[in-house]
Amino acid sequence: MHRGKKYKAVYSKVDRTKLYSLEEAISLAKETSFTKFDGTLEVATQVNYKSLQNVRGTISLPHGTGKKVRVLVFCKGDKQTEAKNAGAEYVGDADLIEKVAGGWTDFDACVATPDMMKDVGKLGPVLGRKGLMPKPKAGTVTTDVVKAVTELKSGRIEYRPDKGGVIHLGVGKTSFDNQKLVENVRTVIASLMKDKPSDAKGEFLKNLAVSATMGIGVKVDVKELVNSIN
């Protein structure tokens, strides 16, 4: 594939054989981004565990993701007022279920009270495909809709590995101060290590890289990072 001079100049700034400190990696990732817009800084880490379906959970980033999160809440009665006051963009019960059943998914996160799940569960073909189905473990099936909406809007993200065991997460915008991005990434790694299955053997996180939207992946010394957190 032909690469232009600009790409080659940027690419040459990153030593692909080197493991950088997190601070160095974030600086390089931002410096080597090709976008003219405010891109996202992403982390990718591969977990070393046989039962990948058991590696999942949520993380609350101290500085958020920088992304506006549109929240939908399925609930009834007074809970609807609570959800609206907490900032949820879409709130309803049967009418909203019918709308989503028709294929509408113009939102980023979904919360439901337990009494709604019998009907919300029928939306699996729509919500499941988009990764939007409310789940108790993720804190999105709850009677405390205020807490759920507030956390989702302030930067709570859900993680789970792909088939190759890699977890991909957006941890902020490239316009963020470097220290805020460092703190967000450290929070991600600390949360993953805290949630490490008790029967996981050896090094749980095999590698780590950070990159900006349309940028170059920069490898991080994950062992050093984990040791600095523990």
Structure overview:
- The protein is 35% helix and 20% strand.
- The chain is α/β, with parallel strands linked by helices and 230 residues long.
- α2 crosses α8 (178-194).
Summed up, what is this model?
The chain is of the alpha/beta class and 230 residues long.
Q: What is the topology?
A:
Layout (H helix, E strand, L loop, with lengths): L4 H7 L10 H10 L8 E8 L9 E4 L10 E4 L3 H9 L3 E3 L1 H8 L7 E4 L4 H4 L3 H7 L14 H10 L1 E4 L6 E8 L4 H17 L10 E8 L5 E2 L2 H8 L1
Parallel strand pairs: 3-4, 3-5
Antiparallel strand pairs: 1-7, 1-8, 2-6, 8-9
Task: List the main descriptive attributes of the protein structure presented here.
single chain, about 230 residues, alpha/beta, 9 helices, globular
Number of helices: 9
**Mean pLDDT score:** 92
Helix content: 25-40%
Rg over CA atoms: 20 Å
Backbone structural class: alpha/beta
Query: What is the helix/strand order?
Result: HHEEEHEHEHHHEEHEEH
Question: Per DSSP, what share of the residues sits in E-state strands of 2 or more residues?
Answer: 15-25%
The major β-sheet equals:
4 strands, antiparallel
Low-confidence stretches: none
User: Gap between N and C termini, in Å?
Assistant: 43 Å
Largest sheet, order of strands side by side?
7-1-8-9
Q: Strand tally, please?
A: 9
Shape: globular
